[in-house]
């Protein structure tokens, strides 16, 4: 079975890409049946290539270091963190997450932040630099190596980050946060390993549809957010995204898509295109033909309790 190409744009003039907005309201016929709350999405789509909402964050990987700088947000200097072979390296999804999280910080002025699935700790470090000195910034990961590295990266950058090891919210029982930024594994198996993104020592196991961990985060997050708290989380089309959005809408008062970026399949994934076709036919992943290239997307959402 071959993957079906899908039209991405509503009709528009030829002056350039246009914004496509979708609003899901209870009781209406939508592409997300069963959504119980309002979902507002905004995306700028370019018919000839990647989304025009592509991150302009400049990142570099030199040896065992990762450097982050988002000039669109006015960064004059990069923030650098150490990396390690046994810790998940920041990716373009990380840059998109940070952009959304930083915008949330500017609007919300949180006093407490949690970087969930912190890896190197880059999200916690960047946010700690933006927040007042008395703000509480926390980070956790299932990997002890990641937690140790995140702690060192906080010290290296002169910011205070409370780092703990454990699965999802287990290390934070009894605590609540104004802002949670989630970056746990969300790629359908076995593409987490086949993609080359996950080193052998980095936990994956998000299940055949890639939703295992993000659904748990969505179910538990409201119990760890303050009444006006926000959750920032990514959804990859290399997972069953509709199920994730339905769950988010059932657990939060409002869910808004704030960033989107499309990427061509890398060589490792293209080698397994037939398997992708099988998972796509089952609805577990979604890839789309853009020009001559098969592409997948990352979307960033902000979920609000109230």
Descriptive labels:
306 residues; alpha/beta; Rossmann fold; ten-stranded mixed β-sheet; 13 strands; 29% strand; globular
Précis, in short:
It contains 8 helices and 13 strands.
Would you kindly provide a written description of the structure presented here, covering whatever features stand out?
- By secondary structure, this protein is of the alpha/beta class.
- The protein has one domain (18-304): 3-Layer(aba) Sandwich (Rossmann fold).
- Helix content is 25%, strand content 29%.
- The strands form 2 sheets. Strands 1, 2, 6, 7, 8, 9, 10, 11, 12 and 13 form a 10-stranded mixed sheet that branches. Strands 3-4-5 form a 3-stranded antiparallel sheet.
- Strand 3 (57-62) and strand 4 form a beta hairpin.
């Amino acid at each position: 079975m071959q993957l079906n190409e899908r039209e991405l744009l509503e009709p528009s003039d030829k002056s350039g890409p246009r914004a496509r907005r979708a609003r899901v309201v209870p009781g209406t016929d939508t592409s997300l049946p069963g959504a119980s709350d309002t979902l507002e999405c905004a995306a700028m789509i370019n018919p000839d290539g990647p989304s025009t909402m592509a991150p302009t964050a400049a990142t570099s990987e030199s040896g065992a270091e990762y450097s982050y700088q988002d000039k669109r947000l006015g960064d004059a200097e990069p923030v650098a963190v150490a990396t390690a072979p046994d810790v998940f390296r920041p990716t373009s999804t990380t840059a998109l997450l940070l952009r959304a999280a930083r915008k949330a910080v500017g609007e919300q002025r949180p006093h407490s932040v949690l970087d969930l699935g912190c890896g190197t700790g880059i999200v916690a470090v960047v946010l700690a630099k933006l927040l007042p000195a008395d703000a509480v910034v926390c980070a956790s990961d299932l990997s002890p190596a990641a937690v140790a590295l995140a702690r060192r990266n906080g010290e290296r950058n002169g910011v205070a980050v409370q780092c703990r090891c454990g699965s999802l919210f287990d290390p934070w029982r009894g605590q609540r946060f104004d802002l949670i930024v989630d970056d746990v594994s969300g790629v359908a198996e076995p593409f987490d390993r086949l993609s080359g993104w996950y080193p052998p020592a980095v936990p994956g196991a998000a299940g055949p549809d890639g939703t295992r961990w993000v659904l748990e985060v969505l179910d538990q997050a409201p119990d760890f957010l303050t009444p006006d708290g926000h959750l920032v989380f990514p959804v990859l089309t290399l997972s069953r995204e509709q199920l994730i959005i339905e769950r988010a809408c059932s657990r939060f008062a409002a869910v808004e898509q704030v960033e989107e970026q499309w990427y061509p399949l890398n060589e490792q994934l293209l080698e397994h295109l037939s398997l992708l076709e099988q998972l796509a036919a089952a609805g577990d992943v979604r890839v789309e033909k853009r020009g001559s290239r098969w592409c997948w997307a990352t979307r960033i959402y902000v979920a609000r309790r109230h």
